[in-house]
Predict the 3D structure of the following.
Amino acid sequence: MLNSIVKNLMLKLVIFTFTFNLCVAVDASELHITLLTSDAKPMPNAVVYLLGSGQSGQQEIDRKAIMDQIDGQFSPHILVVQKDTQVRFPNSDSIKHHVYSFSQAKVFELQLYKGLDAEPLLFSKTGVVELGCNVHDWMLGYILVVDSPYFGKTNGSGEMTLNVPNGDYQLHIWHPRIVQTSESLRQNINMNGDTTLLLNLSQALLPDLNQYEVEKGDFSEYE
Amino acid sequence: MNSAQVAASILCLFFSVAFVKAAEVKVLAQINLVKSDRQASWFEADTGILAYSENGFNVQQGILKLSDSISSSLSYDMVANYYQLGEQHLGFSQAQLIYKPLSASKIRWRGRAGFFYPNMSLENVDVGWLSPYTYTQSAINSWIGEELRVAGLELTAYSPGRSRNSPFSWEFHAAAFKANDPLGAIITWRGFALHDRQSLNNERIRFAAYPTVVETDRINHPNYVEPFHEFDGRLGFYIGTHLNYFRQSSLRYYYFDNQADPNQVNQQRLYGWRTRFHSLAVQHEFNAQNRLIAQWLSGDTVMGERFVAADFESWYLMFSHSNKQHRVSIRYDNFKVIEDDVFAWDMNDSRGDALTLAWRYTINSYWQIGLEHHLNTNYAASRQSLDQELSIHQQQSLAVLQYRWGQ
C-alpha cells in the first residue's frame, strides 16, 4: 500500500518536472553573446538590448535604479534602464557634486550636497543621457534608456547572457567607445531555442580613457 | 576703494546670502608643541627665517571655510583664519564669488571675483590653502601666502579632456587686480622664509629694523610692510595655463606682474614695488600612494629709482608617500635673492637651502597627529647692519595635533 503511494507520488513528480521543463523550453530561450573588438579582443561593459515582438511576453523588472557617486566618479560608469524608470542619484562622497545632462533624452541638473537624498528622476524618453559634474570636470557617466526589459552589459570577457521569450527581435549594441552607428550594428534575430552569437566590431574603438577612473590619492585637487 | 573695502563688501554679500541658505562649513584647527631655533624670527622683528622663536605650545592656526551655491552657476567661498603669531590674529585670507555656468561645450569658461590666490601652487591643496604634506611650507608658497593676494577678477577658458575624448585637459587663466603694490618688500629685505602663516586681509608684516632701511637718512621705511595696499591706481595682471594628463600629471605655468609704480609712496612711507615673476609647477602621481611635486619661481622687483632692486629665484622638490592613514613627505628647498640697486650700503643678497621631513597620521575623519623636522642653512647680507652672523644654520621641530570638521 505504502509502496504504491510512493510510486504514484514519484510519477506525479516526474510528470510535473517534464511539464515545467517543456513550458520553459517553449516560452523562453537563452541568448548568449560574445562581443569582440575589431582586433578580436573582448569588449567589456557594452550594452546589449533587444527590441521586438517578443517583449510582449513581459518580464517584470524593477523600475528603480541608482546612479551613485563614489570617489569622484559616477558608479556605474554606464547604467542601462528601461523607459519609465526612476533613477536615484545618491552621493556617497563627502564632497558636493553638481550632476547635469544636456542630452535630448533627459535635460536636468541636480546639486547633490553631501548627505542629501535627492528625489529620484523619471527617465521616460529613450536614448543616451550623458552625465557630467560641474564641480569635477573629469567626471563622466551614461544612462542608456531603452524601451525593453531585455538588456544587459558584457562582462570582462565580452560575454553576456539574456533569458528572453521566444520571438523576433532586433538586437542593439551600444558603448561610448564604439564608432559604428547603431543602425550598422543592428541585427534581426529569431529566438526559438538557446542561441549563441559571436559579434565582431568592424571599426577600431575610440581611445580608452578609463585612466580618468583610476583611484586617486587624497588631495589630488584643491579643497 | 582699497582691498579691505572690496573684501568687506564681498563679506557682507556672503553673509547675507549665508543667512538665507545654509552654507557648507569646514573647520580646521592645529595646536603644536615647538622646539624652536635659537635665532628669533621676523615676527619678533629679528632675522630668523623660521616662524617660531621660543619653545612651547601654540595655536598654529584655526580655519573656518564657508561655501555654498547661490544659484546653479554662482557660488561663493570664504576663509577666515585665526593665528597666534603675527600682528593681526583674526581676519580672512580668501573671499570669492565664482561663476561657472553649466556647459556641454568642448571649450568652456568660468570666472571669479574677490580676494583670492592664483592657483599656481600644487602644494597648497588642503582646505584654506594649507599644505596637506608638510606644516612648514616651501619657500615659494610661504612667500606667496605672506605677500601675494589678488583683489580682482580672473577669467578662465578651460577644456576638460573627457569632453574631447582626450587624456589632456587644459585651462587658460587671465586676471586683472588691484591692491598688491608693496609685493616684494619682504623677500628683498628679509629674504625667503619657510612657514605656514598666511597674511590676513589688512595684515601688517614686521621684519627686523635694519638701520639701512629704517633710518631717516637712509631709505626711511618702517620695519613693516602692509602688502595689500593700492598706491597708484594701476591694474596688475597675471596669465596662467594648466595642462593635465588624465588626473595623473599636472603642469601649471603663470606669469605675474603687479605693474606697481615703484615711485609711489604713502604717508606711512610704504612704497610701491614693481614685482614680476614666472612660476612653473608640476606634479606627477605615480599611483595613489606616491607623488612628486616641484615648483620653480623666478622674478625681479624694484622700489623707488632703483633704491632697492633685486632678482629672486626659488625652487623645491617634494616627494610624498601615503600608506593607509600615514603620509610621509620630504622636501628640498633652494632660494636666493640677488640685489641689483643703487645703494651699496643697503645689502640685500640672501640665499639658502632647506630640508623638511614630515609624518602625518590620520586617526579618523576628525583627528590627525604629525611630526616635522626642518633644517636649513641661510645667508643674509643685511644681518651685517645688525652685527649678526651672516650665515646661520636653523632647525625647528613640530608636533602637531589637528582637528578637522566638515569633510
User: Anything to note?
Assistant: Helices of chain B lie at 3-20, 139-147, 185-189, 211-214. The first strand of chain B starts at residue 24 and ends at 35. Chain B has a mean pLDDT of 93. Chain B is about 10% helix and 50% strand.
